[in-house]
Inverse folding.
């Protein structure tokens, strides 16, 4: 699903990341090379387009040699056994702050909670969060804040529960976002958010990594929703696409240097 990582890469670029590398199955690298042109590509061992467990050594070396500051993992990965093994090996061997999204979250749900992970920022929609908790989506939606806090405490992470009134929590402090609109409930907007937050992780200042995760998450969901609101005013909610959120991110970011939620 090559559209997802492309949108995540563009989200990171629009979010101010100086360098973005798109890790893709080597058999699909020619497709990734058509854009975004501003992102480099890292070909990874695959089988029929799905990453294999062997890809982890190449990612590990790249992250270390290039001093990567943050990773967004999950958009477009798929759910094959090799992909699940890759994600689980990544979580056991890489220490870089990581935004875990989409299929990365599905792989996490198959792994027992452990402290042997990088600093994690999880960005589930209600169905993905339900799988992490082992409950129904309806149960999550009945009390979104409590459900998100439960996952944050279970995995020692910051959680961004997407949807109307996106919830950000680390299990102790909670922020409910006020920006965004129904037009953003379309494929790809979550990929943009994952890339945007990953970019912000490399830019926000904080005393420790947990506060970096918190601030990047809050700022990311606010700016993402703000960009969507600006787009909605111009083109309406019915026709709004993920690429429109990307187009309006620069305007959303202009003059906005920090955020200090209550």
């Amino acid at each position: 699903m090559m559209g997802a990582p492309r949108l995540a890469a563009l989200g990171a670029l629009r979010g101010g990341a100086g360098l973005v590398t798109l890790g893709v199955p080597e058999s699909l690298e020619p497709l990734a090379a058509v854009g975004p042109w501003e992102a480099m590509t890292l070909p990874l061992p695959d089988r029929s387009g799905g990453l294999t467990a062997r890809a982890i050594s190449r990612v590990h070396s790249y992250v270390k040699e290039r001093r990567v500051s943050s990773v967004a993992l999950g958009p477009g990965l798929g759910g094959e056994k090799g992909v699940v093994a890759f994600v689980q090996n990544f979580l056991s061997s890489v220490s870089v702050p990581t935004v875990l999204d989409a299929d990365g979250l599905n792989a996490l749900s198959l792994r027992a909670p452990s402290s042997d992970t990088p600093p994690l920022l999880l960005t589930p929609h209600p169905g993905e969060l339900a799988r992490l908790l082992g409950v129904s989506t309806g149960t999550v939606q009945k009390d979104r804040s409590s459900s998100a806090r439960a996952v944050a405490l279970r995995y020692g992470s910051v959680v961004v529960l997407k949807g109307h009134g996106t919830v950000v929590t680390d299990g102790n402090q909670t922020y409910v976002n006020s920006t965004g609109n129904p037009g953003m409930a379309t494929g790809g907007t979550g990929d943009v958010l994952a890339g945007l937050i990953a970019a912000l992780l490399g830019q926000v200042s904080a005393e420790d990594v947990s506060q970096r995760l918190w601030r990047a998450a809050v700022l990311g969901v606010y700016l993402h929703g703000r960009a969507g609101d600006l787009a909605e005013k111009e083109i309406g909610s019915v026709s709004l696409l993920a690429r429109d959120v990307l187009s309006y991110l620069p305007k959303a970011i202009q003059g906005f240097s920090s955020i200090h939620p209550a």
About this structure: The longest strand covers residues 21-25. The beta strands are 21-25, 40-44, 46-47, 50-51, 71-73, 98-100, 120-122, 158-161, 167-169, 174-176. Residues 234 and 240 are 10 Å apart (CA to CA).
